[in-house]
User: What shape does this take?
Amino acid sequence: MGGKKSTCYIEDGCSLHLEIYSHMGELAPVYSSEKAVGIVLGTGNLGAKLTDNNSQKAMFLSRDGGLSWRTVRMGTHIYEIGDHGALIVIARKDAPTNYIEFSWDEGETWD
Assistant: This one.
């Protein structure tokens, strides 16, 4: 998280928990596209269980089909994948916005 490796290990009762189910669009569930092989986006948190506190959640990105994950942004976001994964677009989910961020390199850098 934040460019540093996590000290969260399953042996210590800690793991990555991602929101899977969305009722009426309340959550931003795990998302991937068959045209963007290996890229997976999800909102969640590190810890013993998934928290209900959105301020403790972050957007996570995997470029290897879920083998490894990194934090992209803190907070809850909505996202979309285009151009076979080359383009990823994100926006904050917790309030109306006129601001988006995007990546042209499969989530390596953001503008």
In short: The longest strand covers residues 40-47. The chain has a mean pLDDT of 87.
